[in-house]
Amino acid sequence: MNKIVMTEWKLFLREPSMVVFAIFFPTVLLLVLGAIPALRTPDPAFGGLRFIDAYVSTLVVIALAFLGLNKLPATVATYREKGVLRRLSTTPVHPGRLLVAQVVVNLIAGVLSIGLLMVVCTLVFGIDLPHNPFGFFAACLLGMLSLSALGLLVAAWAPTARSAGGWATVVFMLVMFFGGAYLPRFLMPDLLVRIGEHLPPGVGALQDAWLGTAPSPVHLAVLAVTSVVAGTVAARSFRWE
């Protein structure tokens, strides 16, 4: 299993665009936003916080979404289309291990991306680290697993790699919208904000944990249920060829 993970990690590093967007883009976006003086000024709309303080949770959403909904479905669907999964099914290495390895690679890349973001948050902008580290870890883990499960579900149902990319893009855009990436959440109607708080990867739980309160058990439960349900359906409906 370790060899499969190492191989998939090396293949991931050979995709410069994915490495840049998944690991470096959230931090680069923070640096760009932080260069605007108005976004570094405390604002009553954010409870006296700065915009960049309130936007960090959305940057985490961006990192997790790129990995779970851009990289994973396209990679798995391409492997199936090229016959890689079918050939693995004839060897002692079950193709299911390849799917697990994809999720592990996502988790590793997610740790690097969020870790880099935290370093820049603290050293460059003086943003506090998550006030509830255990809650933040749980929210990140469940958020990554829920998006990976949705990504595998797309890969399971899409007939080709191209269609997998198209379907995943639709889900990706919805996740980014409700996560506040396209329109800051404070500008969104309350109903959309409430919906976004519960949808994967759980921007509400991420923000609560970062700003100091424990994530809502309901938010974490939704992420856990999504991971189990989407993962189970994907496993039962997945086609190896």
TrEMBL record:
Keywords: Antibiotic resistance, Cell membrane, Membrane, Transmembrane, Transmembrane helix, Transport. One of its GO terms (cellular component) is ATP-binding cassette (ABC) transporter complex. InterPro entries: ABC-2_transporter, ABC2_TM, ABC2_TM_bact-type, ABC_2_transport. One of its GO terms (biological process) is response to antibiotic. It is found in: Cell membrane; Membrane. The chain crosses the membrane at residues 20-39, 54-77, 98-127, 133-157, 164-183, 218-238. It comes from the Bacteria. Signal peptide: none annotated. GO terms for molecular function: ABC-type transporter activity. Residues 17-241 form the ABC transmembrane type-2 domain. It is a multi-pass membrane protein. The keyword Membrane applies. PANTHER family: DOXORUBICIN RESISTANCE ABC TRANSPORTER PERMEASE PROTEIN DRRC-RELATED, TRANSPORT PERMEASE PROTEIN. Belongs to the ABC-2 integral membrane protein family. This is Transport permease protein. It comes from Saccharothrix tamanrassetensis.
